[in-house]
Amino acid sequence: MDFFKSGLKTVLGAPEPGHQPSGAEIVERLVDRVNNSTLLEDRRDACRALKAMSRTYRVEVGAQGMDTLKQVLELDRADNETINYALDTLNNVMSPTQFEEEENNPRVPMNIGEQFTEMFIKDHHNIQLVLDLLDEYDFRVRLSTVQLLTSLLTNRPKDIQEIILVKPMGVSKMMDLLGDTREVIRNETLLLLIKLTKGNANIQKIVAFENAFDRLFEIVSTEGYSDGGIIVEDCLLLMLNLLKNNSSNINFFKEGSYIQKMLPMFNTPEETEEAGWSPQKVSNVHCMLLIVRTLVSPSNSAQIITSCQKIMKNVGLLDALCNILMSSGVPADILTETINTVGETVRGEVTNQEFLGNVMAPSNPPRPAIVVLLMSMVNEKQPFSLRCAVLYCFQCYLYHNEMSQAGLVQTLLPSSTDMSCLTSGQLLCGGLFSSDVLSNWFSAVALMHGLIENPVQKEQLLRVLLATNIGSSPVSLLHQCTLLLQQTTKLKSKVALLMLLSQWMSHCPAAVAAFLRAPGGVGWLVAQTCANEHDDNEVLLQGLCALLLAICLHFNDDSVENYSKESLRQLLTKRIGLEVFSSKLSEVSRHELYNKAAKHPQLRAKLPADVLIDYEFCRLFKVLESVLIQSLSGPQQNGASSPAPERGSPDSGTLEQYKTLIRQQDARLQELMAQLEGLLQQNQSLQGALNDSLSANSLLKDENTLLKAQVSAAKSVPSGVQVPTPSQDDVRVEYEAKLQTLAAEVARLSSELKTSQEGQKSMGEELEKMRKDQDDLLELLADQDTKLNDYKLRLLSLGQAVDDDTPAPAQPPT
Amino acid sequence: MAYAYLFKYIIIGDTGVGKSCLLLQFTDKRFQPVHDLTIGVEFGARMITIDGKQIKLQIWDTAGQEAFRSITRSYYRGAAGALLVYDITRRDTFNHLTTWLEDARQHSNSNMVIMLIGNKSDLESRREVKKEEGEAFAREHGLVFMETSAKTAANVEEAFINTAKEIYEKIQEGVFDINNEANGIKIGPQHSTAGGAAGAGGAGAGGAAGGGCC
């Protein structure tokens, strides 16, 4: 502290004696100094001091120094140390955590960091400033920048995400830091990216596009997979963020063969079994299981689920998961999550379900894994969450798979009873009638899932007989359920049995008949439905009883005399009343736990008290509710025909409407026809007129030609004879004009001829002259020739050799 | 499953020109006349063969709407190829090409192969942009050009594959740094050991030397 004080002294100068400056004053002077100092060293020192004060005097530093610090980030970028102090100060000011220095300071509001963050991000340019600093390679600066961004994101995640998203290269820059060789920065970047990607699909996609999965798997593998430290967990958390509810990224993950890369995560070497699992390893594997579940979550599209499930089976991931399931020493929460994961990996995918059905547990004697799991489900001593997980896994095993459903019911049928080994059917029956309420519930629901949309198994299950007491005759399973329903005092068991019976009897008249034959069943249901208690759970129970009664009515094939469709309807309307009945029925979907269960196939109960309604039952209820109420309110005895007369009354009005409409249209049609008739006639007469005028026209034409011929004949006769009719006069004028032009033409041509003749004559003369010239020249040439010969002879006589061929080099002109 | 190379593509262009339909036709070989607006970016993938080598195409189909433009920009940098799509029945989509191209050139790596695509060639009667105009634009800006129909699948396969061929040639020529994944190219698992041994010289040189030996 002394050091700090002396440091302050050097920065601020010695205080005036006797005056102890307050924190606010010191901050003010420091900010002043940063603003006004011309020397970098001074600004740096002031920043350092501000940083030191920013924890204790967070409000003061934030309020007075925010703008100044932003300025530093902009102007002093060249000095890493100063930048670093400014970043750290800002980080302290906007930190989401409370410092110990301010624990006892009532003046500091709880969300002070958030308030300052809000101020800081008002100007988006500030975020850009911080993002730009990511380019700085300096260790301290980079680290502080990442930490500052993390703080900002913690305080105002949505705002910052939106700002960063529209900054070009914003996300990419952060992704680049993941490749930083300095581990501290890489690790801090991971934390930053986890915050950045939370709940923002667009950012998640960009991060995935920037090769995030490759990077993360690289880190995970170098850190030793599940045996790695917290950094592995961070990587997995980031992956989880990228995949959650992001079908585009899931698709990318699947197509990029990353499912295969998860495999080493689940390969647990033998020796760890004895060593036990470290808490970190538990977290790592847990995260990895969550990633697997995100890929095959029932909330994804069916296409994605199926293709992921197939890949998981093909690359051996399902196998690895089943190995964890069957190995010893696995911590309970990992085991629970593995069971859930295996469930979702096989859900609705026949090959995977078959694979799970064939997995054997390494027990003595070896038992199917399914049986071992069900043993845990009906075992009171197992942890609650584990039992819930087994139920879910078993439901997934049966989901949309008639084979596994048949397999379950088969184990209960008398023909195949092999007393020596435990079967799933036996376990469920045991659970159904055990004294443990949860076992009752789990078993009833599990059994119910064996019947969903499977009419064959509904009838098969009717054949199941139970030997209750030694000596007494065996009782059918349905009968026993009915009895138990009346006897038990526990709500959970009642609800479970009602759900099982509803599923069993819906769309199965044989089951309805069997129920109606069982003693006391209907009476008990009517009594329950009529009950007038207002506790939430009681109301639910009344509703479920009403539902079962309605099922008895709707799916009744009149095979039981006392309870034919009609007599049941009479009973219900008289004893309960239609309105009361339907209002009781509608109460079911108002129950809190109903709505909770309807949301997700997996039972999401934290406590045994939350266990009451099953997801598939909700679906059944939704489908049946309106159908049942309709069939109940139909006054006629035939449920199916009831809607028809109902439709009659409102329709007559509509019918009348249509009739008038048709009448109107008819009238209009008539009118239009008449119009058409008129138009046709008009057309015909016009056609006639046209023909007449056409023929008249041709007649006139002929006449015209005749006249023309006469005119031309008249022209050849001497002009005096002509009788000047007006038309002939015109023609005559015309012809005269023509004649005139022709005469002019002739004159022009003759003159032309004359000139050309003259031209020819002069040319002839010229030719003559030239011929004469040529004769003269020829004469001259002959003259010259003789002279030349003379000279030659003379030269020869003079003894000069003369070459005959070559003319003399210089031929002298004469 | 195994591939020699992996290429990252993006598809860009105005809204409603048929980007998502092109992708669907290429990956699923089907046409969906009514398609929801793409929000942000969607992903698709397919394997193709070039020169006897398996090549995996990872394709990011972007939203054409202006509101998503800033998000789309984040995808340019890491892509090796881009399909720039316009609609031959809408002149305005052709007019906007320059803006798209500027955006792409500014944010992408300089080697990114851009293929210009005039889509909806099946709607000849409503054509507003002549094929020659598309060709001229492509020539002027150094792009490869093609008219396609996502509906009839005409040229769709070719558009994606020719882009891949172009990238592949650039790799062979050594233009692309294949060891830098930021370029949108990844060497497949069976390749990577050989490539790693050859070092930064790249697989192209290694392949040529191998050919010489034989």
TrEMBL record, chain A:
<dbReference type="Pfam" id="PF04869">
    <property type="entry name" value="Uso1_p115_head"/>
</dbReference>
<feature type="region of interest" description="Disordered">
    <location>
        <begin position="633"/>
        <end position="654"/>
    </location>
</feature>
<dbReference type="InterPro" id="IPR041209">
    <property type="entry name" value="P115_Arm_rpt"/>
</dbReference>
<dbReference type="GO" id="GO:0005783">
    <property type="term" value="C:endoplasmic reticulum"/>
</dbReference>
<dbReference type="Pfam" id="PF18770">
    <property type="entry name" value="Arm_vescicular"/>
</dbReference>
<dbReference type="GO" id="GO:0048280">
    <property type="term" value="P:vesicle fusion with Golgi apparatus"/>
</dbReference>
<dbReference type="GO" id="GO:0045056">
    <property type="term" value="P:transcytosis"/>
</dbReference>
<keyword id="KW-0175">Coiled coil</keyword>
<dbReference type="GO" id="GO:0048211">
    <property type="term" value="P:Golgi vesicle docking"/>
</dbReference>
<dbReference type="InterPro" id="IPR016024">
    <property type="entry name" value="ARM-type_fold"/>
</dbReference>
<dbReference type="InterPro" id="IPR024095">
    <property type="entry name" value="Vesicle_P115"/>
</dbReference>
<keyword id="KW-0472">Membrane</keyword>
<dbReference type="GO" id="GO:0012507">
    <property type="term" value="C:ER to Golgi transport vesicle membrane"/>
</dbReference>
<keyword id="KW-0963">Cytoplasm</keyword>
<feature type="domain" description="Uso1/p115-like vesicle tethering protein C-terminal">
    <location>
        <begin position="696"/>
        <end position="806"/>
    </location>
</feature>
<dbReference type="GO" id="GO:0006888">
    <property type="term" value="P:endoplasmic reticulum to Golgi vesicle-mediated transport"/>
</dbReference>
<dbReference type="InterPro" id="IPR006955">
    <property type="entry name" value="Uso1_p115_C"/>
</dbReference>
<dbReference type="Pfam" id="PF04871">
    <property type="entry name" value="Uso1_p115_C"/>
</dbReference>
<feature type="coiled-coil region">
    <location>
        <begin position="655"/>
        <end position="689"/>
    </location>
</feature>
<dbReference type="GO" id="GO:0000139">
    <property type="term" value="C:Golgi membrane"/>
</dbReference>
<dbReference type="GO" id="GO:0006886">
    <property type="term" value="P:intracellular protein transport"/>
</dbReference>
<dbReference type="InterPro" id="IPR006953">
    <property type="entry name" value="Vesicle_Uso1_P115_head"/>
</dbReference>
UniProtKB/TrEMBL annotation, chain B:
<dbReference type="InterPro" id="IPR050209">
    <property type="entry name" value="Rab_GTPases_membrane_traffic"/>
</dbReference>
<dbReference type="InterPro" id="IPR027417">
    <property type="entry name" value="P-loop_NTPase"/>
</dbReference>
<dbReference type="GO" id="GO:0016192">
    <property type="term" value="P:vesicle-mediated transport"/>
</dbReference>
<keyword id="KW-0931">ER-Golgi transport</keyword>
<dbReference type="GO" id="GO:0005794">
    <property type="term" value="C:Golgi apparatus"/>
</dbReference>
<dbReference type="InterPro" id="IPR001806">
    <property type="entry name" value="Small_GTPase"/>
</dbReference>
<protein>
    <submittedName>
        <fullName>Ras-related protein Rab-2A</fullName>
    </submittedName>
</protein>
<keyword id="KW-0636">Prenylation</keyword>
<keyword id="KW-0547">Nucleotide-binding</keyword>
<keyword id="KW-0813">Transport</keyword>
<keyword id="KW-0472">Membrane</keyword>
<comment type="similarity">
    <text>Belongs to the small GTPase superfamily. Rab family.</text>
</comment>
<keyword id="KW-0653">Protein transport</keyword>
<dbReference type="Pfam" id="PF00071">
    <property type="entry name" value="Ras"/>
</dbReference>
<dbReference type="GO" id="GO:0015031">
    <property type="term" value="P:protein transport"/>
</dbReference>
<dbReference type="GO" id="GO:0005525">
    <property type="term" value="F:GTP binding"/>
</dbReference>
<keyword id="KW-0342">GTP-binding</keyword>
<dbReference type="InterPro" id="IPR005225">
    <property type="entry name" value="Small_GTP-bd"/>
</dbReference>
<dbReference type="GO" id="GO:0003924">
    <property type="term" value="F:GTPase activity"/>
</dbReference>
<keyword id="KW-0449">Lipoprotein</keyword>
<keyword id="KW-0333">Golgi apparatus</keyword>
